[in-house]
Design a protein that fits this description.
With 340 residues, this protein is an alpha+beta fold. It has ten helices and seven strands. It has two domains: 5-179, no CATH class; 189-337, Reverse transcriptase/Diguanylate cyclase domain (Alpha-Beta Plaits), CATH 3.30.70.270.
Length: 340
């Protein structure tokens, strides 16, 4: 629904790497021309040009799906060039040190799951190439040299995996805190725009209406004044739990602030949204909340609005639903208003 901090981090890493590889491709082009490795030099010059081209595309803030495809293409190209270079005769004895960057590169650009798959694929390809077709250079024929290279590769792989896992976990927690109301567990206002756009896309695909529902607990101030804010918080949690039990995809639930809540309902007509609102109203009215041995009931007033998903903004539908909410308040509360 929205791009995470992890994805923005990967974009920055990718752009930096593209600049480095573009410059590196030019440097290695001259080095290999000097060593008469003309095919490899041409490939590295081409790789540098591709990196520069990809950088210019990435810099234009591609959509997230396009960016992921771009990075995957880049990694595959990088792997292919590396395999070609490793199997050429007359290259530097130190070229095999580049194998150690594979796990780091894969995880930084592709994340934990795809990074693991890419690294595994490279490792299997390397073992097949140099186990069945090509021979390792003489300086790697000793058991100690092979062990050192293998140990370092798996060390970098393990550290890359552990770091990326910790990073993704921490970012997921931070994102959850950023978009979720800490008291009720519903979304907060920060996700309204992205959720409405997502609901618009779903409704457009189904060629159906899009509805917005605004809910406000009745006489909530009296609960806080008479019983304290701790009890008020408990009432909000109970109400949110009722919403979670009744809401199904594609309905997004939000706490707007205080005792006001909002629902964005994709693929839902005005009357369908009104039926959902009525089920919420009746369930809340029937629900008893135990406050220190005293059974207390609360009620909710609700306004509902609906419109075409491609022509109505959230602000427009919310304004209509909010007006109908206050009509419900003025008509005695504990009501659903979806017309007028």
């Amino acid at each position: 629904m929205i791009e995470t901090q992890v994805n923005r981090h990967q974009r920055r890493v990718f752009k930096t790497l593209l600049i480095i590889t573009a410059l590196g491709g030019l440097v290695f082009f001259f080095i290999n021309v000097n060593r008469e490795q003309y095919v490899l030099a041409s490939i590295e010059l081409l790789a540098g040009a591709i990196s520069l081209s990809l950088y210019l595309k990435a810099y234009r803030k591609l959509a997230l799906t396009q960016f992921r495809k771009l990075t995957a293409v880049y990694v595959v190209i990088f792997y292919a060039i590396m395999f070609f270079a490793l199997t050429r005769e007359g290259v530097s004895n130190n070229i095999f040190i580049w194998v150690l960057v594979i796990p780091l590169l894969s995880y930084l650009l592709l994340g934990m799951k795809l990074g693991f798959m890419m690294t595994t694929g490279f490792m299997l390809g390397f073992v097949l190439l140099f186990g069945l077709i090509f021979q390792l250079p003489e300086h790697l024929h000793s058991l100690v040299a092979v062990f050192n290279m293998t140990f370092c590769f798996f060390l970098v792989w393990g550290l890359s995996h552990a770091y990326e896992k910790a990073t993704e976990t921490s970012h997921k927690k931070l994102r959850h805190l950023a978009i979720t109301d800490h008291l009720t567990g519903l979304f907060n206002r920060s996700l309204l725009k992205a959720s409405y756009e997502s609901a618009q896309a779903e409704s457009n695909e189904g060629k159906r209406k899009l509805s917005v529902v605004v809910l406000d607990l009745d006489c909530f101030k009296d609960i806080n004044d008479n019983h304290g804010h701790d009890v008020g918080d408990w009432v909000l949690k109970e109400f949110a739990q009722i919403l979670k039990e009744l809401l199904e995809d594609p309905v997004y639930g939000f706490r707007m602030g205080g005792e006001e809540f909002c629902l964005i309902c994709a693929n839902m007509t005005l009357h369908e949204a009104a039926r959902l609102a009525e089920s919420i109203r009746s369930k809340v009215a029937e629900h008893e909340i135990d406050l220190n041995g005293v059974a207390v009931r609360v009620t909710v007033s609700i306004g509902v609005a609906s419109g075409d998903s491609d022509t109505h903004s959230f602000k427009q539908l919310h304004a209509v639903a909010d007006r109908r909410l206050y009509q419900a308040k003025n008509m005695g509360r504990n009501q659903v208003v979806f017309q007028g």
